[in-house]
Design goal:
The protein is of the alpha/beta class. It has one domain: Response regulator (Rossmann fold, 3-Layer(aba) Sandwich), CATH 3.40.50. The strands form 2 sheets. A 5-stranded parallel beta sheet has the order 2-1-3-6-7, sandwiched between helices. Helix 1 links the parallel strand 1 and strand 2. The longest helix has 14 residues. The protein starts with 18 loop residues before the first strand and ends with a helix.
Length: 133
């Protein structure tokens, strides 16, 4: 079941017009995330199910306002891509079934959202991250 919020027509949301990169390899979860954020007015980049495709997107200079990164994508850790986003000053959160200890010291300052995700709260957290930036 998808957790899509219903908003009043014509009422702007904090995600309206924001370009959010979604990197998730679990198809149904990726679809739920994308549909939920799009229902709040976000433009979704993805969902992207593999790291190489995401790296290509970064290399072409695409504007990204924020990102959701699953830590483990097809048995590859997402950390090189997280470093690239950080160097571009793109705020992001991690989504995972792992605990925070899997991040190591480098990413202890990044929010970690454990699966199953609370999509309305996650959307609010993304809006707050972009607002602080």
């Amino acid at each position: 079941m998808s957790a899509i919020s219903h908003i009043e027509p014509g009422r702007p949301t904090p995600l309206a017009g924001r370009r959010i990169l979604v990197i998730e390899d679990e198809y149904f979860l990726a679809d739920d995330i994308a549909r939920h954020l799009a229902s709040l007015g976000a433009e979704i980049l993805g969902p992207i199910p593999d790291i190489e495709e995401a790296e290509s997107l970064l290399k072409d200079g695409t504007t990204i306002d924020s990102a959701l990164l699953d830590i483990n994508i097809r048995s590859q850790m997402i950390f090189p891509l997280a470093r690239a986003l950080r160097s571009r000053k793109v705020p992001f959160v991690f989504t995972t079934g792992y605990d925070r200890a899997s991040l190591g010291a480098e990413f202890q300052d990044i929010e970690v959202w454990e699966k199953p995700l609370d999509l309305p709260r996650l959307a609010h957290a993304l809006a707050a991250l972009m607002h602080r930036r």
